């Protein structure tokens, strides 16, 4: 009887190990806390710079677009470098199939965001752009959420809530809404990932 119980326990442990391996195999786990934190830091610095220099979307549309396009490129570059470094430490390919799936999943949201930005700029309604960026970014994250950890799905919902606030409550304060969303949400996610990677993950 003890032997049967032992066999049952061993089988349960084996199944749990298999589930864990399969879960890691289907999720993209190379998004590191440092990359997310740096993206949030870029958002905070860009918001502060835009506020100090008074680069509002209505009075300085070109400066506003240059600022946030530059922030986007900087954030993407820093995030990719941090992700690539983590993949190399794990001795896995940087340009993996899972990274391709995540990128392809996010790409439509970035395309639509770009098209809407051009439309808003042409119509002189660029103050709607931050809210649209947040909504599309949140939808993009939710679209690839099955490939990421659960906290990214929560982050996607957070950006949708931030989008509503930016469109209806903070439309006159675009840099404040960008500070809270692209800065604050990313910093919060970065701190959580740091705690998770240092505490929950196996060494």
Oligomer: single chain
Number of helices: 7
Mean pLDDT: 83
Overall spatial form: globular
**How many separate structural domains?**
1
Report the sheet with the most strands, covering strand number, pairing sense and barrel closure.
none
User: Can you tell me the residue ranges where pLDDT is under 50 for at least 5 consecutive residues?
Assistant: 14-25
Distance between the termini: 36 Å
Radius of gyration: 20 Å
Strand content: under 5%
Along the chain, the helix and strand elements come as HHHHHHH
Instruction: Work out the helicity level.
Output: over 70%
> How many strand segments?
0
In terms of structural class, how would the helical and strand content be classed? mainly alpha
What does this structure look like?
This protein has 203 residues and is mostly helical. It is 79% helix and 0% strand. It has one domain (30-199). The protein has helices at 2-26, 33-52, 61-89, 97-123, 129-143, 150-168, 174-199.
Could you write a compact summary of the structure shown?
The protein has 203 residues and is mostly helical. It has seven helices and no strands.
List keywords for this structure.
203 residues; mainly alpha; 7 helices; 79% helix; globular
Describe the secondary structure blueprint for this structure:
Layout: H1 2-26, H2 33-52, H3 61-89, H4 97-123, H5 129-143, H6 150-168, H7 174-199
